[in-house]
Amino acid sequence: MTSTSLIPTPIWFTLTGFGGVAVTIPAALAVAAWLAAGMRLRAAAEWLGALGLAGGLTVLTKVAFLGWGVGIRPIDFTGISGHAVLSTLVYPVIFGVVLINTPIAFRRAGFLAGLTFGFAIGASRVALHAHSVSEIIAGCVLGAFIACLFISRLEKMPAPTEPTPHPLLVSLSLAIIIGSLHGMHVPTQRWVTSIALDLSGHERPFIRARWHRDGRVKATPKFVDNLTAVHTHRPAS
């Protein structure tokens, strides 16, 4: 596969490797664990809820398309990009949690750095032809919105009275998790496809190319029928 952008394809592959479920979910669970260890139990519970909400909405759109062909053809939308939503959700929150006790300027800069990194991962999915632009935009908007909501709530929560884990230790552990799991693959698409087929009762999933072809085929007879109706009702000369 060759990329048409100025950025070499290997760089896009490296970026996209940071957005997979094998990396982002363990990192997100580690964030929850560090929040709980720092006596922020409510924040940890809300973070897991936010993660579940983002993942649930993403899977729902994918199942709807794979099982029933539900999508938006004009903008080539077949489901929210998992890489985009998880990257723009997890990485900004990682920075937000690590920098929670720093001045607001550092917190905002870190959050924006994480968000930018998430956007770059989303762009890699388009560059590698894994998703359409609309699917990436949907994922980035959803992930960024939930991340902003969570961090704003986290910052308003009372600070723990007991000692919390040192930010350097939290950062190091998250870096080790992300670095060691980078590039690993989890067959989530196969699992989602299996769920979609079980729920819909279809033998084969809908695929993008056939979905677009079917849309064109269905549009043509309607046009022909309209022409036939015009000829049928035309006054005899």
Q: What value does the average pLDDT take? A: 89
- Uncertain regions: pLDDT < 50 for 5+ in a row? 219-237
Q: What fraction, in percent, of the residue positions are helical?
A: over 70%
Termini gap: 60 Å
The backbone outline, from C-alpha atoms, is elongated
Number of strands: 0
Structure description:
There is one protein chain. This protein is mainly alpha-helical and 237 residues long. 73% of the residues lie in helices and 0% in strands. It is built from nine helices and no strands. The chain has helices at residues 9-17, 21-37, 41-68, 82-98, 104-127, 133-156, 167-181, 188-200, 208-232. α2 packs antiparallel against α7. It is elongated and about 65 Å long. The relative contact order is 0.16. The model is unreliable at 219-237 (pLDDT under 50).
Give the SSE map:
Elements: H1 9-17, H2 21-37, H3 41-68, H4 82-98, H5 104-127, H6 133-156, H7 167-181, H8 188-200, H9 208-232
In short:
With 237 residues, the protein is an all-alpha fold.
Keywords:
disordered C terminus; mainly alpha; single chain; 73% helix; 237 residues
